[in-house]
Amino acid sequence: MKLFVYHTPELTPTDSVPDCAIAIDVLRATSTIATALAAGAEAVQVFSDMDKLMYVSEQWPHEKRLRAGERGGAKVAGCDLGNSPLDCTPELVQGKRLFISTTNGTRSLQRVQNAASVLAGAFINRKAVVEYILAKQPETVWIVGSGWEGSFSLEDTACAGAIAHSLQSATGTPLDEFAGNDEVIAASALYLQWKDELLQLMHHASHGKRLLRLNCHEDLKYCVQTDILDVLPIQKELGVFVKNG
Ligand code: MLT
Fold this sequence. Notes:
The protein is of the alpha/beta class. The protein contains 11 helices and 10 strands. A hairpin with a 2-residue loop joins strand 4 (65-71) and strand 5. It starts with a strand and ends with a strand. The site of D-malate has 13 residues, from loops.
């Protein structure tokens, strides 16, 4: 197995696809997607374009859909939800399809949508991601951070490092042996430096600070919890994610 970490969708190669791609947007899209599926959503359909989301979701039965839209951290007018995982309660999402568009996370999911398998990863479901990789043993694995509008984000790379570190511990393979690029080593070092203080790391992160300005402290606390959900969002058709298994 060769593992590659890319900090942003923009840094991800365009001339090849991996056997397995894991898109990460800790704050907050992939945390929200995993939470919605854990709470019983029928599926989560992702869009980079808000107008397309509105058009496609319009064809879906009204009582079976929820529209979630986020730009700049705030809820998009006309949507039922913003992008807080804490809004995805069973009472609200059970049996419904969540149509979601966010500033960066849904873009990174779309960026890797042609990989043989596409997963949505976050700290909250790190173990489920790692178990899938260990069971399937894909030849090439890309972990793609969402960043913020083309820039590096601490939280996504730290989560990439958490996955790399966990794979390394489970297999007993030296990191050098399965690292496909330098970013794997850097991500792992970042995670190991902060693993016991992930909430503090979020307070250093530019998007963490943005969310704190928007009074989303509870979201930060929720999203740094590691391995709390045994749910793996996996793409079953282009842009549509369901619970694996
Ligand atoms: C994104 O896609 O950039 C994020 O999920 C933004 C957010 O925190 O809502």
